[in-house]
Specification:
With 349 residues, the protein is α+β, with helices and mostly antiparallel strands. The chain has 8 helices and 18 strands.
Length: 349
């Protein structure tokens, strides 16, 4: 905070608050807000009725339960009265920010990610262990998909998505974040919403799924083909596998994040599929399924030990099929380590 000239950081809903305190704010119209100042003890303002859920941490923050007859923004504004620059969490509701700007005229407002982002990007050993456990769980499901243990032909995308979701929970996640199932031409839409389309023989089925286990996210994509693999699909998949492996290998400490993107993109472009790779190569992952940094042109932050991110290039031929291959990678002193170990080959099921 001192480096960035930030006097106070205000955190409400979103993941910065649980990252720092272990407490997750209810996404309510009632204000929960942690106020961290450059000096003094941080205060956690919570609605009186939520206070019993807070695990108190003396020395880390002081709990300030507020009663229904009090306007909590007045309390926060009073607490910040000496601050000229205040940083707020990205997900803080506009109703609270607007209320604070009215109460604190003349304050310069910044984003809390300026302070908390750097901390959250560098995962500790404990965080990496949590990401690895979540990755192992979805690896097992990917293995079931590739072995044919998850029926596809004759089921709708939505049915298979529900099946994957159940398996995500059965494997120890508390929450499913997404379970994309896209068959045939639907797979050409990277974030396809699984629907009524019945999966047929001889199709690419793209499955991208993940959840949250003990606070940390999993995210994996594997494709399978229901029957014989068409030659055009096999050719593109070979390029994709090569690009994805090169992207993983590129994530050496000191390399800019955008370089990981450039490496996968070059291989795909050289093979003639450049126009069909329509998204960034990857995203950071941790408490949120998408968080800093981003493996995309323009993100010049350099890879450091503890960075965790996806490498997920894709090739999408509109009207025909789509392919994506995704693993979560962690940067270490010894180079990038893939947390996902599910087989990379395109399986015929
Ligand atoms: Zn995505
Ligand atoms: Zn994914
Ligand atoms: Zn992803």
């Amino acid at each position: 905070m001192a480096d960035k000239n930030i006097d106070s950081v205000l955190l409400s809903v979103g993941h910065d608050l649980p990252y720092l305190t272990g407490y997750t704010a209810m996404p309510l119209e009632r204000l929960t807000m942690l106020a961290v100042h450059s000096t003094g003890v941080p205060l956690l303002f919570v609605p009186r009725l939520e206070a019993p859920r807070v695990e108190e941490m003396p020395g880390l923050f002081e709990l300030v339960p507020w009663d229904e007859t009090v306007e909590p923004l007045d309390l926060v504004a009073q607490d910040c009265s000496g601050s000229s620059t205040i940083a707020v969490g990205d997900q803080t509701w506009a109703r609270f920010i607007v209320g604070l700007t009215h109460r604190l005229p003349g304050v310069r407002w910044e984003r809390a990610v300026e302070v908390v982002g750097d901390l959250r990007m560098r995962k500790s050993e404990i965080e990496i262990a949590a990401l690895r456990a979540a990755a192992r769980a979805v690896d097992e499901i990917a293995g079931e998909l590739q072995s044919g243990a998850i029926p596809l032909i004759g089921r709708t995308e939505a049915e298979v998505s529900a099946d994957l979701s159940q398996r995500i929970l059965d494997r120890g996640h508390q929450k499913v974040n997404f379970a994309i199932v896209a068959a045939g031409e639907n797979a050409a839409s990277p974030h396809h919403h699984p629907g009524d389309r019945v999966i047929q023989p001889g199709e690419v089925v793209l499955c991208d799924f993940g959840g949250t286990m003990n606070g940390y996210c999993s995210d994996i994509t594997r494709c399978v083909v229901t029957g014989d693999i068409p030659s055009d699909v096999a050719a593109a998949y070979g390029v994709l596998m090569e690009a994805q492996a090169a992207g993983v290998a590129a994530g050496i400490n000191g390399v800019p994040c955008e370089e990981v993107d450039a490496v996968t993109r070059q291989i795909i472009a050289d093979a003639g599929y450049g126009e069909y790779f329509v998204h960034r190569t990857g995203h950071g992952i941790g408490m949120e399924e998408h968080e800093d940094p981003y493996m995309v042109s323009g993100d010049r932050r350099v890879v450091e030990t503890g960075f965790a991110y996806s490498v997920e290039p894709g090739i999408y031929i509109p009207g025909k099929w789509g392919l994506r291959l995704e693993d979560i990678v962690v940067a270490t002193d010894g180079g990038p380590v893939s947390l996902n170990e599910a087989d990379h080959n395109l399986h015929a099921v």
